[in-house]
Amino acid sequence: MSYWLFKSEPETFNINDLAKKPNKTEHWDGVRNYQARNFIRDDIKKGDQGFFYHSSCKVPGIAGIFEIVKSGYPDYTAWDPTSDHFDPTCSSDDPRWFMVDVRFVKKFDRIFTLDEIKNNPVLEKMAVARRGNRLSITPVTEHEWKTILKLA
DNA sequence: GCCAACGTTGGC
DNA sequence: GCCAACGTTGGC
């Protein structure tokens, strides 16, 4: 089993939104970056777990945990002209973008902040702590995962 | 609202 | 295939 960190802007979609979905499950669509796409298509498997990270907000940090309930499949919003994530250059017989389904597991009692990540010697090397990092999906090591669970 | 970082686009 | 311009992300 692998661990991941998914970023989302809480004004758009946050951990409470996920918890309120039917079956507490939602597809994670709209990833339009090749590196993140490759993780979704090739590496993220059913049963993996992820941190739900809130970005571009007052207190950026990890809000809780989800699990992967369906591994990568074509992100159909790329073919939907009414979607914000529509990609007009993407043909329907050759899926370019992928998504996974995630299910709410738990919400932390508090936000485990980016500041705490940066100031922890175990966590400071996490991609999310690097200045200028824009990748919305990044791998998390087991050591990092357990360290955060202990402290959150 | 500013600006650094960096992925993408497009001219050559 | 190089690289400058541009657009977006995201912390501050």
Please give the count of helices.
4
Task: Indicate the low-confidence ranges by residue numbers.
Answer: none
Biggest sheet, in brief?
6 strands, mixed
CA-CA gap between termini: 21 Å
Radius of gyration: 15 Å
Beta-strand percentage?
A: 25-35%
- State mean pLDDT (0 to 100 scale): 93
State the total count of DSSP E strands.
6
The structural class is alpha+beta
Describe the structure in your own words.
This protein is α+β, with helices and mostly antiparallel strands and 152 residues long. The protein contains 4 helices and 6 strands, in the order βαβαβββαβα. It has helices spanning 15-20, 34-43, 114-118, 142-151, and strands at 3-8, 25-28, 49-54, 61-74, 98-113, 137-140. A hairpin with a 6-residue loop joins strand 3 (49-54) and strand 4. The protein binds a DNA duplex (12 and 12 nucleotides) through loops.
Secondary-structure map:
Blueprint: E1 3-8, H1 15-20, E2 25-28, H2 34-43, E3 49-54, E4 61-74, E5 98-113, H3 114-118, E6 137-140, H4 142-151
Parallel strand pairs: 1-3
Antiparallel strand pairs: 1-6, 2-5, 3-4, 4-5
The structure holds a DNA duplex (12 and 12 nucleotides).
Keywords, separated by commas or semicolons:
152 residues, six-stranded mixed beta sheet, DNA-binding
Summary?
The chain has about 150 residues and is α+β, with helices and mostly antiparallel strands.
